[in-house]
Amino acid sequence: MKTERVSRAVLLAGAGAVLAGAVALFATDGLVGPGRDGPRPAPGAAGQAVRAAGAGARASLPELHALIGDREKWLRAHPRDEASWAVLGAAYVERGTREGDPAAFPRAERALRRSLAVYPAAKGNADAQLGLGALANARGDFAAARRWGEAVRERSPRRWEAYAVLVDAYRGLGDHVSAGRAADRLGALRPGATALSRAAQVYRDRGWREDASATAAEAVARADTPAERAACLQRLGDLAWERGEPAEAAARHAAALDLVPRHGPALAGRARALAALGRTEEAVRGYRAALEAQPLPEYALEAGELLQALGRRDEAREQYARLRELAEEEAAHGVNASLVPARFEADHADPEAAVTWLRAEWRRGHRSVEVADALGWALYRAGRAREALPFARRATERGLRSALFSYHRGMIERELGMAGAARRRLSEALRVHPEFSPLFAPRAREALAALGEPPLRAPRGR
User: Fold this and answer.
1) Residue 351 domain boundaries
2) Which UniProt keywords apply (predicted)?
């Protein structure tokens, strides 16, 4: 199961942070443009969404839907209220990410650009720019997200939401130094769960596992709403999973689901952990629930690989077909959907296609360890192990400790006849997480067994 990526849950937090900032200004009459006289949303669920977002927290999905309906109704009669257009656009981004609905993203872009048309960026419309930054992150266009975030930071260096956008953008680009600086600034300007969650991810990228877990746990304690707390618990579960602790991961995800039963990342995370614990039928059902709540290609890939490992090949093929459909739908709505399909193609279909897609990502400046690992593995699967090795080294030497990345590098080194290095990497993969994948962990054990014990060296002088 390929879980080492820039998490959708983290990108969702970026959309939520931008919505919180836009709503906070909207709700406190702190506007400086033509829409400053627009009313607050109606009481009830929409008002609850405003109160949650105004506190920097995440609203529930019903509250988010109510806020969207409220702003849509208002804007039909008041089309020049740029603040409401910005709120609506940011809410579309968050809803689209949380529900796995890429069709929401073009609507978000139209709303945000409508806000800029009424009140341009040059005059100070930071909310719409930040919304476009969150949208770019959600679409996987990290270079564009960086441009939007940096533009707001330059003009308004105390807008904390800009740093939330920038942390996610820099991480997607593989610039962890800048991500750390942005996370520090975010924490100074807006202490709380949003900043702590990002700091945890930055620590995780650097390989600081204890710091990441402690900071993520503090984020859980600082969460202000059930939706926010569920997201923080889910992130804590993901960190436990990466440490090779599936029982703890399952417990964290279950706690998140007690708060938000249809939380897609927690459903998928719990399924992942249950598979590692040998509770495979529960895991299969868990993936089905995750795909129903949030239909993402990565969940279909994980479900397919679990089913393939169980020998249920027809069901696995159905999941792989669904992966392709979901990726095509994402691409049709402007989402950069290359990483997960490339991982699928490398392992299950056309490695050369994966190489082509991933080289394009690399040229675009998307040089995270996730892309480096995927490109190295695709090159190996395409029969070009020597070209693959520099990318595998980059993925495993940049801080993040990933069993999957170590497995990939070990297999590449084995192909190149580097038996000692391969033995070390494969052993490391299984030490970090003995059940990192139902499909590939057994292959790692087989490869390690085939390498055998290291040869005994004769003492010097004999």
Assistant:
1) 345-451
2) Coiled coil, Repeat, TPR repeat
